[in-house]
Design a protein that fits this description.
Layout (H helix, E strand, L loop, with lengths): L1 E6 L4 H9 L5 E7 L3 H10 L4 E5 L5 H15 L4 E4 L14 H29 L2 E6 L3 H4 L5 H21 L4 E8 L12 H9 L9 H11 L10 E5 L6
Parallel strand pairs: 1-2, 1-4, 2-3, 4-5, 5-6, 6-7
Amino acid sequence: MKTIIIAGASGEIGSMIARVLDKANNRLILLGYKNEKGLSDLQAKIKCESHTFLCDLSNFSSVKKLFDEIISKFNKIDVLISAVGVSKINLVQDVSEKEFDYIMNSNFKSNFNITKCAIKNMITNKYGKIAYISSMWGKVGASCESVYSASKGALNTFALSLAKELGPSNINVNVVCPGLIDTKMNNNLSPDAVKEVVSSTPLNRIGKPVDCANLVEFLISEKASFITGQIITIDGGFSL
């Protein structure tokens, strides 16, 4: 049985990843922060063995305590998937220090913390799969989302470094960079803005959470055992 940690599991992409990975031979560890109801509702839909935990992933001591508990209970961590993330649309001159810290802590520091706490076990076992949900804006930058783009760019280069560092321990590290996905995070966009994105997308639609989940499922499978250090854009061709 594979022990799979999904951080940000109460979000729409994270919860879809959990549902796609709802297989008899998987044990899902679902992590969230404040949305306890979202986690419990998700767990009720899952048939395979699953467990939920609430934790502020930007707080290293809390994360270490949680991961020590997970390893004590389940002995190993085979897969780490992170779909944590927040967004804020604002001109850079209007971004407050509090907003800057919140975005960077949520989108980058949280991923650093959970990775640091997971890889020791993976290195010991000489096996592991890591997949991060980032953003196409982490590759090309987005106007009015400078800090968000920077946080995702940091995650991307962190993953590239990790792939080199952890490869000798048989640990694969890859990144999924979605374009515009039909989630609540993008509810602030006007219908005209969405139409504009669609018209600039060769596949003539925005993405769905399941598009991301299917790619993650492939990247953590043995079919992708020779794939590491890849930042894969999934945007219907928008950024071409």
